[in-house]
User: Fold these one by one.
Assistant:
Number 1:
Amino acid sequence: DAMVIQNPRYQVTQFGKPVTLSCSQTLNHNVMYWYQQKSSQAPKLLFHYYDKDFNNEADTPDNFQSRRPNTSFCFLDIRSPGLGDAAMYLCATSRDLWGREQYFGPGTRLTVT
Amino acid sequence: GQQLNQSPQSMFIQEGEDVSMNCTSSSIFNTWLWYKQDPGEGPVLLIALYKAGELTSNGRLTAQFGITRKDSFLNISASIPSDVGIYFCAGQDSQGAQKLVFGQGTRLTINP
């Protein structure tokens, strides 16, 4: 089945130690998104790629970066994680940007110690 | 930023009861999506709506795109224990913003 895969499902990192989360998709979708979700809240969009074009949300901290080396893979890099960055990180894909459904991966739960 | 008003925030029901939740926006939307999220998992798309007045079913779930294009509802009939979770509405507005706006979620709890 076509799907969105996130690895690892659980990640523990130390305060200030860089961490990378990965996402892959077999849907061949043009758009890949990264969301941050904190407990009992809706997902918050960090940025997205339309093909190779990167779009950052205005309120996404510089601490968060992303890479998309090819259609299938996208990475979220947190350069210096703080305690406030502990959250569920969700990757999603859609065929295009306009009025299309988004499909989410299972998420990576990040703990910062 | 733009927000969707989703209600109720939580529901406590008996197994077998029907459930209804809704979302409203202050602006016109072109797309309404309904997701269910289980603890520790990503949201799963339940129903997608693209036309005003559209009524779509997925098993025991039914959702409608409001005629005014500013609201949507989701109904669940004959609830079962696996319906427990958080339901999110999401939409894309007609202004062309290239992202989804999410509601705050409805947490559904079912007493057996």
Note: Chain B has a mean pLDDT of 93.
Number 2:
Amino acid sequence: EAGVTQFPSHSVIEKGQTVTLRCDPISGHDNLYWYRRVMGKEIKFLLHFVKESKQDESGMPNNRFLAERTGGTYSTLKVQPAELEDSGVYFCASSQLTSLNTDTQYFGPGTRLTVL
Amino acid sequence: AQSVAQPEDQVNVAEGNPLTVKCTYSVSGNPYLFWYVQYPNRGLQFLLKYITGDNLVKGSYGFEAEFNKSQTSFHLKKPSALVSDSALYFCAVRDGGGGSYIPTFGRGTSLIVHP
């Protein structure tokens, strides 16, 4: 069974440009999460989809970040326009729709975003 | 608010020696605790979790963790370290008492196992 995949693995852009990150969850997983880790710091929650609906987007930093999950399969996270502080590793995770407190989340390899 | 502390940025251990990676937590309800490992250029891999039951939880790759309620700790252990265990380890907590289901992660601990 394929795991969570993310594309691209690395992205280097200039301040003010737009970047779109993609996540393909494990097939059949209704829960999809986005996280971000800034160098040396905690992994921080950004948002959570259940199928195509946003369940919780309390971690989204500001309105420059837009996440979508049309059709309830893959998800995209767009940053427009990118700022220097957006640099970090963006992780996606998915899980089956069971108890949200105890479900095991399976992570992708992450996208390393560098904004110059 | 819930929190996780991983007090050591880096742990060094010789191959064959026991290893411990420390984690303490704070949560208002019952703690649901998780350990993940990130190998170089890879995503986070689930190692083990504590939800309820036996305080000693066994996970992947020979790792185990002990839930200690009085010390609010969930330290990760392995009896005999391998060089291939060198990686970044993350502890996470969720609130099992009806609070937010969103996990809170620690900053990560870099484990270096020397040959």
Note: The two ends of chain A are 37 Å apart (CA to CA).
